[in-house]
């Protein structure tokens, strides 16, 4: 068997998930319930260039246009006209000359305080997040201070806003963590779009969103059966991040690399398997690629930073037992996340029988470790909602 070589595109693309110091500090302050607008202001003011760019937010520009009823005049300061000398005949019948005017100025940068107090915390977060994402992807940002620049965060934050709204509208809790889980998807989409990734990558991303959303719902329901569960607020995000790893694989392995197969060929092999597909996936993927989708998902989550605490869960999600002695807290979450993947793949119209051939030995072990009986598993599949779009 040919030895594996890591594709050279892995590290630049994964590193591009890093959100930057300004956004990290801003979100740290935003997620702190004791921090107010001054803390957010302080985070932004450390980067004057960012403060200037973020004011291209279309909502803030419209606000400022309403405030500035009169155009700003740029030109030399005008001295007060000298009083007319009655002794001078020419001055007696001559009115004062009109003040010289210059061109109408472009909108100048406002202080971070004015920006935050005008749009509010949530809108400011959306603007900062979408701008940080565009900068990471080296998007169409202005090079000169005089260049006009406008952006609409809602068009950039599709998955983040959908995830947050789903949790808030149903009062599920941990909506901020859900926002970050969706933002992870949006960030990937921005990077892949900027790189003109093949159409198959977009298809894999949409599949990951649908399957991941279903599995995340089940994992969250399982977690609700446990009290005082460490890191439980990241259950949804961890599950979603694992499925995003498949989109990463589709992108990284969309071109030929020594010792690596194409992702589409791997998908064809797995689709041809009729029984115990999850076990076949694990076995075939590790034989075909140097980094499997959970490896790429964990690397991506670590670079993204906000999901770094659950990176071990993501990396070990196919083999949770490796965490049992190393990190019991991560081990429990990894079991729940894996169970969410297993159970969510069961057709909802089937009668649940965990002893059937539908479950592999590893599946049965996970279910046994969590003490999930068939009577508990059945209701987990009831009324699962389709991912919002």
Describe it.
The chain is mainly α and 389 residues long. Helices cover 56% and strands 0% of the residues. The chain contains 18 helices and no strands. Helix 8 (158-169) runs antiparallel to helix 9 (175-194), helix 10 (199-223) crosses helix 16 (328-344) and helix 16 crosses helix 17. The radius of gyration is 28 Å and the shape is globular. It starts with 9 loop residues before the first helix and ends in a 9-residue tail after the last helix.
First and last CA, distance: 43 Å
Summarize the main sheet. none
In DSSP terms, counting alpha (H) and pi (I) runs of 4 or more, how many helices?
18
**Which consecutive residue ranges, at least 5 long each, have pLDDT under 50?**
72-84, 86-106
State Rg.
28 Å
Task: Give the tally of β-strands.
Answer: 0
Query: Into which percent range does the helicity of residues fall?
Result: 55-70%
Mean pLDDT across every amino acid position: 86
| Estimated structural class | mainly alpha
The best one-word shape is globular
**Approximate strand percentage:** under 5%
Task: Encode the helix/strand succession as letters.
Answer: HHHHHHHHHHHHHHHHHH
């Amino acid at each position: 068997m040919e030895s594996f070589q890591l594709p050279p595109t892995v590290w630049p693309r994964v590193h591009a998930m890093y959100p930057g110091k300004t956004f990290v500090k801003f979100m740290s302050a935003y997620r702190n319930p004791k921090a107010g607008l001054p803390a957010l202001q302080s985070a932004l003011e450390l980067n004057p260039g960012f403060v200037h760019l973020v004011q291209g937010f279309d909502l803030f520009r419209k606000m400022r246009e309403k405030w500035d009823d009169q155009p700003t005049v740029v030109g030399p300061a005008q001295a007060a006209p000298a009083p007319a000398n009655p002794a001078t005949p020419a001055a007696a019948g001559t009115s004062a000359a009109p003040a010289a005017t210059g061109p109408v100025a472009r909108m100048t940068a406002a202080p971070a305080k004015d920006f935050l107090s005008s749009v509010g915390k949530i809108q400011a977060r959306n603007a900062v997040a979408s701008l940080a994402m565009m900068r990471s992807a080296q998007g169409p940002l202005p090079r000169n201070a005089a260049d006009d620049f406008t952006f609409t965060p809602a068009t950039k934050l599709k998955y983040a806003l959908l995830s947050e709204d789903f949790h808030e509208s149903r009062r599920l809790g941990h909506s901020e963590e859900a926002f970050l889980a969706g933002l992870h998807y949006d960030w990937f989409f921005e990077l892949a779009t900027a790189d003109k990734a093949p159409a198959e990558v977009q298809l894999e991303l949409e599949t990951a969103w649908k399957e991941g959303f279903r599995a995340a719902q089940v994992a969250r329901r399982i977690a609700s059966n446990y009290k005082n569960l460490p890191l439980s607020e990241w259950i949804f995000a961890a599950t979603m991040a694992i499925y995003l790893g498949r989109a990463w694989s589709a992108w990284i392995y969309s071109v030929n690399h020594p010792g690596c197969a194409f992702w589409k060929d791997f998908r064809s092999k797995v689709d041809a398997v009729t029984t115990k597909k999850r076990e076949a996936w694990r076995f075939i993927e590790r034989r075909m690629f140097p980094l499997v989708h959970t490896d790429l998902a964990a690397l991506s989550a670590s670079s993204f930073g906000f999901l770094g605490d659950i990176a071990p869960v993501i990396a070990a999600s196919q083999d949770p037992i490796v965490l049992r002695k190393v990190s019991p807290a991560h081990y429990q979450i990894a079991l729940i996340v894996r169970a969410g993947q297993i159970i969510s793949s069961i057709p909802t119209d089937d009668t649940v029988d965990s002893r059937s051939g539908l479950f592999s030995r590893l599946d049965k072990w996970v279910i046994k470790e969590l003490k999930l009986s068939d009577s508990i598993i059945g209701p987990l599949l009831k009324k699962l909602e389709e991912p919002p779009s």
